[in-house]
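Journal club side-thread
Mid-discussion, someone asked how the predicted structure for our own chain would compare to the paper's figures. Pasting it here so we can look after the session.
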Amino acid sequence: MRSPQTTAAAPTLGHSLKHLAVHLLTPLLMCLGMALAYQGAFHQPEPHHLKVAVVGTSAQAQGLADAVRAKAGPALDVSTLPTREAAEQQLRDRELVGAFLPDARSPELIVAKGGSDTSAMAAEAVFQNVTDKQGVPLAVTDLTTPSKGDPTGQGLFFLLVALSIGSYASVAVIGAAGAALGMRIRALVGLAVSLAVSVIGIVTAGPVFHVVDHDLAAVWALGWLYSAGVIAIGIGLHSFLKRWTTLTMMVLFVMLNFTTSGGIYRPELQNGFFGGLHAFWTGAGFMEGARSILYFDGGAGLGGHVLTLALWLLLGGAVMAGAARYEKRARALAHRTADAAVEAAAEAEEEMEEAVAV
């Protein structure tokens, strides 16, 4: 006669609500993090040591520089330069945001909007106050030529967003669907995915929308280097963090990455925390590197930005190497545990046989 089959007891309401609350923790933390990061970085842009210069060797030029410096305080770093040529060179080297040429009838401000349109606007606002008091218009000269499809220079930021989302979203898929694959295989898959992400990015930013209208190969290479670093770090972290990987990637490559990239506001318009991260964060490496290529003829610190991206990729390689060792130890422990269980079962069976024989 068959014994009646038992069914598992239905979970209690309290258990179900606790299970739901644990899973809702991730999106709620994402919401909090995005609110803190974006509002903290962008809510009140103010100049902090914005580098400007007054051009001229006369006592009038020096007096104007002293007056602007005294009124602005730490908001501006005001210097004087002897000639227009010297000012233009510092603007092309991205050592200045704006250079003012005083004149009683036709004052002029020279900027390089390709470096940051918002920073150039801040410099323009400073010297607009000067010329308004003189009762004369301010002429603004931009040394850079914007791309056909990116008149504000902020299209590169949205390219960064596309590359980032394609990269960190792929990490979750590789970690889940590719969990049975070895670390080397996952690394190769990640490299291939980063290639695909970078190609999608440059095709849409280049031929489709003309945000990048020249030097496509160089910008694409930066995008591939950036994407490969993000994916490498994500693949490595997944071995340790599992379901918390997505939240961690959001923190690293959205919350802290977009806000410190300089795509909307550069460090001179941000507080010290986000401005400080700009110096070495990977998104800033891509943004500033692409700007150097497109608007400054490959100068203005391009080598340093490439080095930043390369170091993040090396960091990803180190995290993957650590993850590979961690997984190897975990597999070895699992094998030892399984062998011990088999041995214990065999010993129990032998003891049972002996007991039966007795």
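Post-session note: The chain has a mean pLDDT of 87.
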